[in-house]
C-alpha cells in the first residue's frame, strides 16, 4: 500500500508525493481518503529541499570524480533514482543492496595526438 505525503517547500509551497508505506509514525492530515491511491495523506517531517539535500553529496561526488578524469569528457550524464520517505527524507534508490548509477561520458572531438 502507498501513502500520499505532503512535503512543504522552503518558499512556503507544498509538493505531494506518493510513497511506499513504511514502519514508523507519520503526522496524518485527515485520515484515509477513499479513492486516492488507498493511502493516508500525511505531512513529511522535513521540507522537500531538505529531504533532497541528503543525496546531494553522493551526486556531487560522482560528478566531481567523472569531471576530474585526465581525458575529460565533453559531456557527462548520470542517471539514478531517488526514493522519498516521510521520515527518512530522500536517498538513492536501489533494487538490491548496491546502488546503481547509469553513467554516460561523451567525447565530441578527437583526442590530441600523443
TrEMBL record:
Domain Trypsin-co-occurring: 8-109
Pfam families: Trypco1 (PF19493)
InterPro entries: Trypco1 (IPR045794)
Top-level taxon of origin: Bacteria
Name of protein: Trypsin-co-occurring domain-containing protein
Source species taxonomy: Bacteria, Bacillati, Actinomycetota, Actinomycetes, Micrococcales
Amino acid at each position: 500500500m502507498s501513502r500520499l505525503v505532503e512535503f512543504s517547500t522552503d518558499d512556503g509551497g507544498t509538493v505531494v508525493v506518493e510513497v511506499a508505506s513504511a514502519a514508523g509514525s507519520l503526522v496524518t492530515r485527515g485520515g484515509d481518503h477513499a479513492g486516492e491511491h488507498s493511502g493516508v495523506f500525511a505531512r513529511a517531517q522535513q521540507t522537500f529541499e531538505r529531504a533532497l539535500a541528503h543525496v546531494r553529496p553522493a551526486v556531487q561526488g560522482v560528478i566531481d570524480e567523472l569531471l576530474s578524469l585526465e581525458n575529460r569528457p565533453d559531456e557527462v550524464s548520470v542517471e539514478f533514482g531517488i526514493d522519498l520517505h516521510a521520515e527518512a527524507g530522500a536517498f538513492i534508490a536501489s533494487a538490491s543492496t548496491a546502488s546503481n548509477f547509469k553513467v554516460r561520458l561523451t567525447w565530441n572531438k578527437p583526442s590530441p595526438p600523443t
